[in-house]
């Protein structure tokens, strides 16, 4: 029995690399770029923990990381969740952007294509797809595809 789903590992590595490269492009300092890589790497830790021990049934990795006093446990707990604008961090926006633009093959794709993949994987009537497509609409209407570019690069 494998303890690791290889597509999940490929996805989290893709998200980590996306976040690092985007943070660099935004002009963030090296320490923050390194933190973004680590954040991307562990953003789906609940899936890996649940796979290791299905009796745990974690809904998000923020629970575990908060207990470990991880600096970005808030961002992991709130990825793919609607958050009041005054609580949204740039790190959460970057994590959402990366997670929604990196598929299970570690490839950078569009937000729209990622939603199609969720629909195909989980079914159009599934709670997962409904939640992710509702979130995608909310995210894009609030932040669009280029929020961080506009904020940091005036693009």
List keywords for this structure.
9 helices, 155 residues, mainly alpha
General description of the model:
This protein is an all-alpha fold. Helices cover 65% and strands 0% of the residues. α1 packs antiparallel against α2 (30-42) and α7 (111-122) runs antiparallel to α8 (127-142). It is globular. The N and C termini lie far apart (48 Å). The model has no long low-confidence stretch (mean pLDDT 85).
Order of helices and strands: HHHHHHHHH
Query: For the terminal residues, how far apart are their CA atoms?
Result: 48 Å
Given helix and strand content, the structural type is mainly alpha
* Approximate shape: globular
- Given as residue ranges, the uncertain stretches (5+ residues, pLDDT < 50) are none
Cα radius of gyration in angstroms: 15 Å
Total helical segments? 9
Overall pLDDT level: 85
What fraction, in percent, of the residue positions are helical? 55-70%
Strand content of the residues, in percent? under 5%
Largest sheet: none
Present the secondary structure layout.
Blueprint: H1 6-25, H2 30-42, H3 45-52, H4 62-67, H5 73-78, H6 90-101, H7 111-122, H8 127-142, H9 147-153
Summarize it:
The chain has 155 residues and is mainly alpha-helical. It has helices spanning 6-25, 30-42, 45-52, 62-67, 73-78, 90-101, 111-122, 127-142, 147-153.
């Amino acid at each position: 029995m494998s303890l690791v789903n290889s597509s999940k590992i490929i996805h989290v590595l893709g998200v980590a690399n996306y976040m690092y490269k985007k943070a660099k492009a935004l002009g963030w300092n090296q320490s923050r770029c390194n933190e973004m890589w680590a954040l991307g790497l562990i953003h789906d830790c609940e899936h890996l923990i649940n796979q290791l021990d299905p009796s745990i049934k974690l809904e998000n990795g923020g629970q575990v990381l908060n207990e470990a006093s991880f600096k970005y446990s808030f961002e992991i707990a709130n990825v793919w969740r609607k958050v009041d604008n005054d609580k949204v961090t740039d790190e959460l926006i970057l994590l959402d952007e990366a997670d929604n633009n990196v598929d299970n093959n570690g490839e950078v794709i569009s937000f729209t294509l990622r939603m199609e993949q969720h629909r195909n994987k989980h079914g159009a009537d599934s709670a997962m797809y409904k939640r992710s497509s509702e979130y995608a609409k909310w995210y894009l209407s609030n932040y669009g595809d280029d929020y961080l570019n506009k904020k940091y690069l005036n693009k």
